[in-house]
Amino acid sequence: MGILVAIEGLDGAGKRTIVGRIHNEATARGARVTTFTFPRYGESITADLASEALHGEHGDLRDSVYGMAIMFALDRAAAGTALRTACADHDLVLCDRYVASSAAYSAARLGETIGSSPVVDWVADLEYGRFRLPTPDHQLLLGVPPEVAMARSSGRAATDADRPMDHYERDRDLQAGVYRAYSDLAASGWMSTWSHAADDEAVAAVLDRLG
């Protein structure tokens, strides 16, 4: 049975780059590695509907904190069997975003404090309880502050017409709140052990768990 590691952080934090580096270095060590990216845009209808809502479609869907969390949860739930199979067949399974993203964004949108947040408890009960998603063995938070992550997202959108900034990415107050929520989730050890790092330290934090 392999280990499941979730890589978390704001849009523009560099999750895709870090996941790629961990994948390549772990593979070079002889480990069997596979990767999941959430939300599964272009593959999951619920993920695509959520994305469309964040770009102004589907009426007031994006205004509902619980509604958006359910959309993203259903996307992950549909990948549950594949995730469990991957954990059985690989040494390392990497998730580029996972359940903690819904916990952080939902708490930040509602102004709830981690540790006494009904929505965070609801996310855990829904996804790990009702949907029976595998709990991560470790979670890595990329320590890239909101102003840096937002600048990266803006620059990416300016050069890639297929990746425009969505409603969440354009909201500076929300991004700052999400960063605080993520930091508090990591500090509290929500659902697993956490590392809070960036770049080389982030890669090492995961590779060290392979032994």
From TrEMBL:
Keywords: ATP-binding, Kinase, Nucleotide biosynthesis, Nucleotide-binding, Transferase. Gene3D superfamilies: P-loop containing nucleotide triphosphate hydrolases (3.40.50.300). The keyword Kinase applies. It comes from the Bacteria. Signal peptide: none annotated. GO terms for molecular function: ATP binding; dTMP kinase activity. Its EC number is 2.7.4.9. GO terms for cellular component: cytosol. PROSITE patterns: THYMIDYLATE_KINASE (PS01331). GO terms for biological process: dTDP biosynthetic process; dTTP biosynthetic process; dUDP biosynthetic process. Residues 7-193 form the Thymidylate kinase-like domain. Belongs to the thymidylate kinase family. This is Thymidylate kinase. It comes from Gordonia humi.
